[in-house]
Amino acid sequence: MLVRSSIISPVGWLSSLLGLLLLAPAPAVITVTTSSGAGEPRFLLADGATPVPNGVQYQVGTFPLGTDLSAAGGSPSVLYASWQPFASDVIYTNPTTLEAGSAGDDLVGLDFFAARPAYWWVLMTSDGLDPAGDFSNVVQQALFRGVSPGWSFPASPGVGVPPVWSTADSLNFAAGSLVGGEIQLALIPEPTSGLLALLGGALLWRRRRADVSPAVVLSR
Question: Do residues 76 and 175 touch, judged by C-beta distance below 8 A?
Fold first, then answer.
């Protein structure tokens, strides 16, 4: 009497897995286009004169509804913790105009972002690496989105022409600003500056208290 084995061979298991993968629907994707080219505002460092170097990363993404964007100025790390990145690219020198601080490309991401508001975030780091999760290596930034309703991810992935988000659009800034027709990044506050100021104030208060105390004692 023959007894069939219940053990599936590795070849059979891989074949079954491959078959399932082929039958599974491919995830829908969204394509958008960013543009900061000829005749459009470029990106400058916080000094207002130096173009943002080649290779500095920018990200396109969104935030949960109700996110307070005012944190971009004082507590950008808190804001970055709620950031939902769609795709990223880098600043470069335009090969046609040779203008540094340019940007623009077709970006592709998942349909999770469909119909959600879009933001453009330039993130310059101190070490040239990707932004750290705690924002500790980011030294300059610009965060903005277009006023136009076109600055939303397509509601129907793969349908129609991808939207073009240009730095020449009317923009609202949470960090950085439009100065002299160019987008100027903003410096990130030093995380220790507030602590040092608080410590210095405490020491000054103690010194003044020490200077006043003897006079108070003698006046009794």
Answer: yes
Q: What phi, psi does 164 have (nearest 5°)?
A: -110, 120
Give this prediction's pTM.
0.77
CA terminus-to-terminus distance, the chain: 113
Beta-carbon-side half-sphere exposure of residue 212 (alpha carbons within 13 Å): 6
- Residue 7 in any domain: the answer is no
Residue 16 lies in a domain: no
Residue 82 lies in a domain: yes
Number of structural domains, the chain? 1
Parent domain of 169 = 24-209
Please, which pLDDT band fits residue 220 given cuts at 50, 70 and 90?
very low
Q: Does residue 31 lie in a domain region?
A: yes
Does position 122 have pLDDT exceeding 70, yes or no? Answer: yes
Mean pLDDT of 85-95: 96
CB 44 within 8 A of CB 184: yes
Is it the case that residue 212 has pLDDT exceeding 50?
A: no
